[in-house]
């Protein structure tokens, strides 16, 4: 049996998708990953076969840098970073306006490339990133049975009454005005209609007999998998989803890191893990405030600086571990608190480890994800552009002292997500489904 995984050339997407493939690997089955060259080493580390497939202009091997992107993509990335400094609505507006070029790149060409890839690999099952719209067009129009995986908060798949790009919820620390929210909603509706029109043009070229879509952002594969804990998702919203399976989390294993292991064994103070992921680590101004807030709290800090120069973060205690990239899963196993932008990998991996989150969300589904953790009592959200070091420190102290019912529920959630639950659930969902036809 062969599993084909189709992923954008981004480490943050490939890590959870490839981890799902380990269930097939453990069963002795063949796993092939189709992605771009920037993530080739990740595929190799998993021990999977690889097919080259470029799904977009950009790439990210683990830490993204604008200067490493192709012409045009570099300016778009700088524009995004600048928008995050202006606030929630401004960032969501920027992302909405860039949506077509980001998510529906060369749709007909990529669709046909994916069809040829399937013909060559001849998989029994196919898993594809939900946001790989061009690839999904190829699978759909060729009648290739497939599962698509929503890697972000489930609001990345809008349900009745929602429009893609407009978060269904956000923390109360964000207080956008009614007019700017109305304007954002209108923009997202316009982008939805334009995106759907482009989807339908490509759809008609690939399959003239296909019925046009009403909302391309709501299209799903034959099997819908949500890489998110069902326990954190609104029960009312769950009822509005199409047929689906919640995976909970897809947490990878990491190779031992001698420096990290030595650091973990060298001290007894509680560990706080800090990372803004592969994109938002560029916000060194916020990382600097976080570092200042954690000074003197009686904790050791493991801080992943990403694209930020550590020299800009102010005085760093000798007891801290500061590197551009750190093994997040391993450090979360030892952490008592994580400070994060609220990306889906950070959320699901922290929940699996039973670690509360201090969240500073910047973009997309991070706002809805942070709101869900606030509601569950497993996190606390601050506005990254306005939170002071004093406010960050106070929130960290509150979360470090979490006890009682929230702590007990968080431990229960972590236990339910551990032990490879996500890959196992994906394997069960796909092997119970028809093979590729």
TrEMBL record:
<comment type="similarity">
    <text>Belongs to the UDP-glycosyltransferase family.</text>
</comment>
<dbReference type="InterPro" id="IPR035595">
    <property type="entry name" value="UDP_glycos_trans_CS"/>
</dbReference>
<keyword id="KW-0328">Glycosyltransferase</keyword>
<dbReference type="Pfam" id="PF00201">
    <property type="entry name" value="UDPGT"/>
</dbReference>
<protein>
    <submittedName>
        <fullName>Glycosyltransferase</fullName>
    </submittedName>
</protein>
<dbReference type="InterPro" id="IPR002213">
    <property type="entry name" value="UDP_glucos_trans"/>
</dbReference>
<dbReference type="GO" id="GO:0017000">
    <property type="term" value="P:antibiotic biosynthetic process"/>
</dbReference>
<dbReference type="InterPro" id="IPR050426">
    <property type="entry name" value="Glycosyltransferase_28"/>
</dbReference>
<dbReference type="GO" id="GO:0008194">
    <property type="term" value="F:UDP-glycosyltransferase activity"/>
</dbReference>
<keyword id="KW-0808">Transferase</keyword>
């Amino acid at each position: 049996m062969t599993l084909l995984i189709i992923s954008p050339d981004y480490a943050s997407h490939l890590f959870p998708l490839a981890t799902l493939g380990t269930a097939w690997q453990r069963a002795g089955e063949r796993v092939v990953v189709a992605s771009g060259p920037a993530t080739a080493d990740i595929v190799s580390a998993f021990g999977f076969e690889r097919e080259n497939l470029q799904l977009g202009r950009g790439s990210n091997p683990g830490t993204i840098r604008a200067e490493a992107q192709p012409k045009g993509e570099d300016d778009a990335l700088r524009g995004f970073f600048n928008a995050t400094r202006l606030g929630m609505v401004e960032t969501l507006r920027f992302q909405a306006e860039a949506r077509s070029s980001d998510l529906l790149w060369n749709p007909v060409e990529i669709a046909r490339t994916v069809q040829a890839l399937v013909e060559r690999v001849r998989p029994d099952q196919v898993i594809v990133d939900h946001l790989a719209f061009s690839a999904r067009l190829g699978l759909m129009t060729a009648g290739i049975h497939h599962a698509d995986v929503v890697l972000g908060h489930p609001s990345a798949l809008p349900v009745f009454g929602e429009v893609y790009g407009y978060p269904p919820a956000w923390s109360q620390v964000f207080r956008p005005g009614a007019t700017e929210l109305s304007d954002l909603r209108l923009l997202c509706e316009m982008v939805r209609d334009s995106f759907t029109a482009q989807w339908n043009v490509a759809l008609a070229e690939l399959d003239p007999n296909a019925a046009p879509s009403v909302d391309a952002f709501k299209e799903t594969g034959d099997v819908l998998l949500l890489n998110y804990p069902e326990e954190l998702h609104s029960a009312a919203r769950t009822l509005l989803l199409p047929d689906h399976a919640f995976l909970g989390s897809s947490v990878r294993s990491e190779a031992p890191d001698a420096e990290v292991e030595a650091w973990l064994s060298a001290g007894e103070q509680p560990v706080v893990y800090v990372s803004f992921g592969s994109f938002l680590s560029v916000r060194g101004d916020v990382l600097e405030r976080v570092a200042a807030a954690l000074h003197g709290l009686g904790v050791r800090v493991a801080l992943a600086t990403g694209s930020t120069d550590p020299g800009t973060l102010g005085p760093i205690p000798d007891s801290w571990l500061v590197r551009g990239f750190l093994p997040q899963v391993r450090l979360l196993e030892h952490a008592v608190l994580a400070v994060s932008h609220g990306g889906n990998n950070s959320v699901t991996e922290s929940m699996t480890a039973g670690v509360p989150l201090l969240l500073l969300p910047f973009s997309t589904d991070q706002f809805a994800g942070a709101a869900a953790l606030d509601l569950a009592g497993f996190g606390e959200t601050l506005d990254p552009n306005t939170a002071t070091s004093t406010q960050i420190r106070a929130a960290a102290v509150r979360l470090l002292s979490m006890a009682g019912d929230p702590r007990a529920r968080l431990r229960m959630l972590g236990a339910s997500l551990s032990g490879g639950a996500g890959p196992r659930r994906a394997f069960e969902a796909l092997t119970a489904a028809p093979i590729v036809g």
